[in-house]
Design brief:
The protein is 38% helix and 21% strand. The termini are far apart. It has 11 helices and 11 strands. It folds into 2 domains: 182 residues, inorganic pyrophosphatase (n-terminal core); 113 residues, Diaminopimelate Epimerase, Chain A, domain 1, CATH 3.10.310.20.
C-alpha cells in the first residue's frame, strides 16, 4: 500500500509542487511515496508543471486507513474530511500550527518561512539528496509564487537562498522574470467562472467557532476585475450560505502596486473593519501593502474573533 503526500484543499502551487517534491525525497530515502492532490490544478500550477515536464499528482480525496504526509497545512478545515481515520506520518508546513492531532509520533518540519518548498529544500540538504532539474524547477516556482516574487512580508533569507540554489540546478539566470510569467498567467481571468476564480486559492478557517472563508487572487493589474465585481459578490453570497460561513472574503491582490482590494460578506462586518482598522464601503475596502493572507489577514481576524 503506497504512502501518500498531500496538500490542502483547493491546492495552490506550493501544495501541488510540495507534494511532488516531498514524495520524491521520501522515495529516495527508501520510503516509497506518491504525490496526491485534493482539488483541481490552477492555471499557474499547470503552467509550472508543463514548463518543467512534471506530471500532475492524481486526484485523491479519501485517506481513511492510509498512511500520509501532510504538506502546506495543519488545519482540519483544509485536510481531507476523513483524515482522522488516516495515519499521519509527518507534516511539512510554513503556517501556524493548526488543530490536526495524531495517535502516534510523527515527523514535523514547521518553520516560519515563505513557502513549504523552502523547507523541503532544507530537507533535501539535510539528507544530502540531489534534486533533479525538473523537481528543482517546480520547487523554485512554488517559492516565487508564495513569496510574491520576494515581495511578501512572509519572505525570508531562507526563501531567497533556496531560490538562488535551485536556480543553479535549473540553469536559470533570472528567476524574477519567470515569476512575472507565472503571475501574468494568474492574471488571465477572462472566460473563468466566478466560482472557479474564488476557489483558485480559497481556505476555510475555524475562528473561535465561526467558519471564515478567505480566497485570494494575485494579479498584475486589478482592472481585470472591473466588470466582474458584481458576479464575484453574487457567488460569494452563494458560498457563504451553502456552507453556513459566518464570513467570506476575497482578496484581490495587486502585486505591482502592492495592496489588496477586500471583498467581504459577514454576519458581523464591524469585526472585519476592526481587524484591519478600515471601513467597508459597498462591502469593500482597500488594504495597502497587504499581500499575505497568512501573515497580514488571518492573524488579525483571529484576534478579533477570539475577543
Amino acid at each position: 500500500m503506497p504512502i501518500y503526500v498531500v496538500g490542502h484543499t483547493n491546492p495552490d502551487s506550493d501544495s501541488i509542487c510540495g507534494a511532488i517534491s516531498l514524495a520524491y525525497l521520501k522515495t529516495q530515502l527508501g520510503q516509497p511515496c506518491m504525490p496526491a492532490r485534493q482539488g483541481e490544478i490552477s492555471p499557474e500550477t499547470r503552467f509550472i508543471l508543463e514548463k518543467f515536464g512534471v506530471e500532475a499528482p492524481a486526484l485523491k480525496t479519501e485517506y481513511a486507513d492510509e498512511e500520509v504526509y501532510i504538506v502546506d497545512h495543519s488545519d482540519l478545515a483544509q485536510s481531507p474530511k476523513d483524515i482522522k481515520q488516516a495515519t499521519i506520518l509527518g507534516i511539512v508546513d510554513h503556517h501556524k500550527l493548526g488543530d490536526l492531532t495524531t495517535d502516534t509520533p510523527l515527523e514535523c518540519w514547521i518553520r516560519p518561512v515563505g513557502c513549504s518548498n523552502t523547507i523541503i529544500k532544507q530537507m533535501y540538504d539535510y539528507h544530502n539528496v540531489e534534486i533533479p532539474k525538473d523537481i528543482a524547477g517546480i520547487m523554485l516556482c512554488a517559492i516565487l509564487s508564495d513569496t510574491v516574487i520576494f515581495k511578501s512580508p512572509t519572505c525570508t533569507r531562507e526563501d531567497t537562498k533556496a531560490v538562488k540554489e535551485l536556480a543553479k540546478i535549473v540553469g536559470l539566470e533570472d528567476p524574477r522574470a519567470l515569476g512575472m510569467e507565472m503571475f501574468i498567467v494568474k492574471s488571465a481571468v477572462k472566460g473563468t467562472s466566478p466560482r472557479e476564480l474564488i476557489m483558485r486559492d480559497f481556505k476555510d478557517f475555524n475562528m473561535s467557532g465561526s467558519m471564515v472563508g478567505i480566497g485570494q487572487l494575485e494579479v498584475v493589474d486589478l482592472s481585470v476585475f472591473d466588470e466582474m465585481k458584481e458576479a464575484l459578490f453574487a457567488e460569494l453570497e452563494v458560498m457563504k450560505n451553502e456552507a453556513n460561513r459566518h464570513s467570506i472574503m476575497l482578496l484581490l491582490t495587486d502585486i505591482i502596486t502592492e495592496g489588496s482590494q477586500l471583498l467581504c460578506l459577514s454576519d458581523a462586518p464591524e469585526k472585519v473593519e476592526h481587524a484591519f482598522n478600515t471601513t467597508l464601503e459597498s462591502r469593500q475596502a482597500w488594504l495597502p501593502k497587504v499581500l499575505s493572507r497568512k501573515k497580514q489577514v488571518v492573524p488579525f481576524l483571529e484576534k478579533v474573533f477570539a475577543s
